[in-house]
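As practice, study what follows.
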Amino acid sequence: MNRKKPRRSGASPVQSFDAKTPLGDLLDRCQLGMTIVITRRGQPVARLIPFSRPRDQAEIASSVRKLRAFGKGIKLPKGLTLKDLIEEGRP
């Protein structure tokens, strides 16, 4: 199969016969963010989508607490703004 830049939206149709042999290639495309629709006689029968781990709300809340604790007490040097620091890092 050709290696093309994956489309992030929409789905790429593949005939079921064509999906049997290059399953590894189809999985690679899914891993890059593509959705593959498998068809039989031109009719969609399955969708191969990228896997995404369910978000753990407790883990997210813990990360936010850690970030807030990390930022407490940090102050910019006198005369500098956050905008100055951002612009300094830009090429």
User: Anything to note?
Assistant: The first strand starts at residue 12 and ends at 15. The mean pLDDT is 80.
